[in-house]
Design a protein that fits this description.
homodimer; 307 residues; alpha/beta; TIM Barrel; eight-stranded parallel sheet; two-stranded antiparallel sheet; 12 helices; 39% helix; 16% strand; globular; disordered N terminus
Chain lengths: 307, 307
């Protein structure tokens, strides 16, 4: 880790709740509920919102209405609205809906890639090479997720060098951003530092984002470790959407509210209104059927009370 | 923050669940349940366990049986068992039960001290001066809590210099350890670093411990910040006892399991068996009437599964 002087003055928060969060919720929300949620998050000042995925509706029913959602969101001003696309067919759908930024999803673990995207890593890179080229040709920015960047639920600890190879390949095919995912929320700060320090020997730190899950409570400590390495793009999910505080092994994303609370407390600017994000989460909560795991959402700000 | 090379190789975990945790639970547990809980925590290798408080039974019924509890725990080998004592009467009770280490509790905020211990800070220091002298004369170690070291629920942000004055006074009256408490779980890492760096201009870092609440999810990030300043004694509560994941504003202590998971993942030794602590928490949970907030306790270890 570097001295605190090296902490970034600003962090770009990538809101993944409407996609990565809702995709992992049991409830399938009405289109209007999602539209309102994304609109509220946009109004809160979030600079990037991953709003949907152009995947097979039979496999991921939570995202089946992404086409219509993006059409309706066309008028939303402010954030970049991104969509996950697994292949060229998904990209074509996204482009037809006016999407201007896409994301592809691979892994640093072969076992996870095979089970999660039904391709080995090499094949996913071939597919994404075409997707990224076409996206760029259409004027779209392209982000890549490297899931299981530290731990894989099937093969355990993932070696640094594997992540370096996958990340370098993603850079080579032209990805504009590489998000390192702690998919099962198992990483601890020294593992985060070790991987990022190794990656930044080959890649500019500005290419990297981090995507932590708070499964074991370490997400914010991992963010702190990543910040001290110079990473300044951090994913989070409003309310901690995608996890349930009582589900065994619930692997919710880091909650946007918890992230913003820490960053703002550290004097790091995000341009996001924390209270407005919390209000968006609270408005969504009744549709989920369970409480949201964000700690800040439950506690609220530390205001001085009348004793 | 200092470079990662400066992280302590070992951390002493002070288990506060049986006192600070149970004192803040609505349920009053049977003596036998508490005895078994402390015995299990001791067997897990925790080096220090705050097992009870010699306070007024009418004010704190959860601790009313501390005398009998400590008598029964007399045979427990391994950890130092500590007790909170508010004054000389409490100390006398503790000594009669064979207690060999005590803790006193004051604050860095006058408003909090007046409401919580019914004394202003100066008066608490007078009282504790006698308590610590007598404790030392009896061969007891004496720790002091400085609650509201960063934020006060009544007066808001607490100035660094106030904490420095209180901590220096506690050192002057002979306290062997000073635990800085983020009582309402509002601190963020730079505030932690700033206070500890300021304190260690006047006090040896080995005198300091940190006591974080995970109210807004920042506890482990704050621990990381404290470790990088050289602090090597960290308080935690088994299962996150003392907080409920669904209670509005629940201000549970940092969970021992979450702390151990992070420390062990960072290669920092504690001498504590994480799985044994989790088993102690699970065995206690049915008596509480609500789930425990520790994230690790819900998720378990990241074992590779058969896909």
């Amino acid at each position: 880790m570097t001295p605190q002087g090296a902490l970034p003055a600003q962090v770009r928060v990538v809101e993944v709740g409407p996609r990565d969060g809702l995709q992992n919720e049991p409830a399938i929300l009405p289109l209007m509920t999602k539209q309102l949620f994304v609109t509220r998050l946009a109004a809160a000042g979030l600079p990037v919102i991953e709003a949907g995925a152009f995947v097979r509706p039979d496999r991921v029913p939570q995202m089946a209405d992404s086409d219509e959602l993006f059409r309706r969101l066309g008028g939303v001003r402010g954030p970049v609205l991104t969509a996950l696309v697994p292949n060229r067919r998904g990209l074509d759908r996204a482009l037809r809906c006016g999407v201007r930024a896409v994301a592809v999803f691979t892994a640093a673990s072969e076992a996870f890639a095979l089970r999660n995207i039904n391709m080995d890593i090499a094949r996913s890179l071939e597919v994404f090479s075409q997707v990224v080229s076409e996206a760029h040709a259409a004027g779209c920015r392209a982000r890549a997720y490297v899931s299981t960047a530290w731990w894989c639920p099937y093969s355990g600890r993932v070696p640094c060098e594997t992540v370096v190879r996958v990340a370098a390949s993603l850079r080579d095919i032209g990805c504009d951003e590489i998000a390192l995912g702690d998919t099962i929320g198992a990483a601890t700060p020294m593992e985060v530092t070790a991987l990022i320090e190794r990656l930044t020997r080959d890649l500019p730190v500005g290419l990297l984002a981090v995507h932590f899950h708070d499964t074991r409570g370490t997400a914010l400590a991992n963010v702190l470790a990543a910040l001290t390495c110079g990473v300044a793009t951090v994913d989070a999910s409003a309310g901690g959407l995608g996890g349930c505080p009582f589900a065994p092994g619930a692997s919710g994303n880091l909650a946007t509210e918890d992230l913003l609370y820490m960053l703002h407390g550290m004097g790091i600017e995000t341009g996001v209104d924390l209270d407005a994000v919390a209000a968006a989460s609270r408005a969504l909560a009744p549709a989920l059927g369970h409480p949201m795991p964000s700690r800040y959402l439950q506690a609220g700000p530390p205001r001085a009370v009348q004793g």
